[in-house]
Amino acid sequence: MSSEKTKDLESVDIMVNMGPQHPSTHGVFRMVLWVDGERVVELEPHIGYLHRGSEKISESEIYPQVVTLFDRLDYLSNLNNEMAFCLAVEKLMEIEIPKRADYVRMILCELNRISSHMLFYGTMGLDAGAMTPIMYGFRERERIQDFFQSVTGARMMHNYIQIGGLREEPPNGFQKQLREMLPKLEKSVEECDQLLTLNEVFLSRSRDIGIINGTDALEFGLTGPCLRASGIAEDIRFTEPYSLYDEVDFNLPIGVTGDTWDRYVIRIAEMRESIKIIYQLLQLLPDKGETKASGIRLIPRPPKGESFARVENPRGDLGVYLVSDGGDKPYRVKVRAPSFANLQALRKMSVGSYVADVVMILGSLDIVLGEVDR
Amino acid sequence: MKVIVQLTLVSSAIVAAFIALLFSGQNDIFLKALGASTLFGFLSVVVLAMIWYERKLLARIQMRIGPMRVGPFGILQTIADAIKLVTKEDLIPSETDKTLYWLAPIVVFVPSFVVWTVIPFTPSLVIQEMELGLLFVLACSTLSIVGLIMAGWSSANKYSVLGALRSTAQLISYEIPIIVTALTIAMLADSLNLIEIVKAQSSVAYVLFQPLGLALFFIAALAELGRTPFDIYHAESELVGGPFVEYSGAHWSIFYLAEYFNTFLFATLVSLLFLGGWLGPWLPGIIWLFIKIFIVISIIFWIRGTYPRLRIDQLMEVGWKGLVPLSFANFVLTAVFIYYSWSLWILGFIGIASILLIMFTYKKRKISQPPEIILISSSEVRRV
Fold first, then answer.
1. B375 vs A contacts (CB less than 8 Å)
2. Considering only Cβ atoms within 10 Å of each terminal Cβ, which end of chain A, N or C, has fewer?
3. Strand partners, A324
4. Could you tell me which residues are beta bridge partners of residue B135?
């Protein structure tokens, strides 16, 4: 009799559907949570709401056009994406690109990393419930976006890095403008850092939440800041430098515990390092010189074969696998998207934590759905 | 339909005010009724101004300029918003429990208005002077929890159910420090009459005797109002909007109105209980009161612009392990001081010392001292 009674009183886990329309799923991500009170018992991510078939479309576009598709993958770090595809094609065609073009590419990529991390900073604040960081993050992002506009002509979909170099010369005053902007960026990174990083409430919300250790992180295929937060020194710019990254000195920030706060603070530290890299590149950048390799046809036809190029995106290791059949269109393009791999770890990190923590953990993974769903 | 909701609401508030007045044994009911209606109009205007001020202040904190379009400096923006909200379609989801869903805004709103009948702006400017004024205020402000649960449950939405459960836990646990701290003040003033409490501060405002009490009351009031960093039951980033998720248009604006009534109420209470209410040199009393309220409200908004949100378990921890024991300790200590008629200034010093001590120990927590991140330099790696 008594057992029957307790059976009646047994509690049931509530299934809560978060997304695709939810303020803090960072796009059209959907997850289904089973919660016991406030604790998350089970989590099931659903992706694919933003699937556009970019990889398949790439097969029916000529090579220069594919670059524009890569702009739209990770729409917060467009230049890094363009870089990855161009590197893959250049590897296949064995093109030596002029040094000046390479430096400009690196400068733009590092700037894009800062602008992407600034948006992360803002959304992380929003996820934690603070309204102000997003405004400060966006101010810097706008600053960089304006600079991009003056260089490439577009705010987001640049199509500036092209096979064999750059689409066109960087404008007059490129260096001057950059030299004016960098101290401001430096100052505001510190400002942002002071606003949120050591805030008592933020610390208690983010520390020891969503911990993932180094071994697990490697097994899940985490890359980028999420992996480095778990204490693994892995960065493509560092371990297998592409472009001219072996000419610059910078530090790699490594986390200790692998919790949400580490993932956050590593990105803040990375912004500082990026600024440091840009300063060095400005010293190295020659004033005059070619920005496009000679002898590249308007419609390049890489030889038959395959190549794989990877770059360090703000979100992690972006790999492009390219197969060519000798025609003017790629035979197959496969993108190894960092956000997609990072998202796998969400369940492992969140089960057992509170509902509010899941939002923070998802925020700290910093996914971009354009890249997850492709 | 919308108009009916509105009219019912307003009239029920006024009827409730009547009832409160009837039981107070006064005869000039119609004069009081006029007062209550005027008060409603006054409070509505204050709320409109407050929303405008909050938006402007937040905008300034965030390097924006805020509303600028409607009227000079966007002063009329909130009026435009109010008109928009009231003329919106009144959407009631099909799965809701209609009666509860419809009643909930009223249950939240009425107590938040009724309390104002006993709040004195000056010794003479009060609708009903009540001997147990403070008790009445605290009792009424507790009632709104019922409305929140009704709203959350009847919406038939999981977010709102979670929000309602959160709000129950939060509001009930933070009632205790509020009541105990208010009682400490009542003990000092030897009265529950709000006018008497202010009059007792004519030489020294109680904030100097009760700095700890003010801190406890203010923090607990933030939680009671559901304001940052304790806006757990709204929790936009996880629960979207808490108990009000499904509400729209006029219904929603009533919740909003009630919330701002309460914000204004607690700012007024802080001014009355701790800052000496309308007492002050040179200026007329009511201006002093409004200056004090303005400062308290500015601090509330400032906190909103600066702080992230706590988690539900941390909120309960702050409440039960921090505010409740501290408020009781403060209560007992004050009682001892009054009993032996020791100097209350010593109590003030003890209060400030304990606030500093708490802040210091809080900073020393393990969680507040994160490990340094390791920096590996590329030149090092290349040498290897």
1. 251-254, 269
2. N
3. A305
4. none
pLDDT digits 0-9 by tens, A306-350:
999 989 889 888 999 999 988 888 999 999 889 988 888 888 888
Tokens of B267: 């700012």
Nearest to B309 among A128, A200, A250 (CB): A128
Does residue B232 belong to any structural domain of this protein?
Answer: yes
Whether residue B197 lies inside any domain: the answer is: yes
Of the pLDDT bands very low, low, confident and very high (cuts 50, 70, 90), residue A292 is confident
| Whether ipTM exceeds 0.90 | no
**Sequence-ordered list of residues with C-beta below 8 angstroms from that of B216, at least 6 positions apart, any chain:** B177, B181, B323, B326, B327, B330
Is A276 an interface residue toward B (CB < 8 Å)?
no
CATH class of domain segment(s) A11-373: mainly alpha
Q: Which domain holds residue B310?
A: 2-367
Question: Phi and psi for A322 in degrees, rounded to 5?
Answer: -125, 130
Q: How many domains does chain B have?
A: 1
Task: Name which of A37, A203, A254 is nearest B373 (Cβ-Cβ).
Answer: A254
Rounded CA separation A357/B128 (Å) = 47
Q: Cα–Cα distance between B384 and A19 in angstroms, integer?
A: 47
Per the CB < 8 A criterion, the answer to whether A356 and B310 are in contact is no
String of DSSP letters for B255-302: HHHHHHHHHHHHHHHHHHHTS-TT--SSS-HHHHHHHHHHHHHHHHHH
The span from the CA of B331 to the CA of A172, in Å, is: 71
Give the closest-approach CA distance of A330 to chain B in angstroms.
36
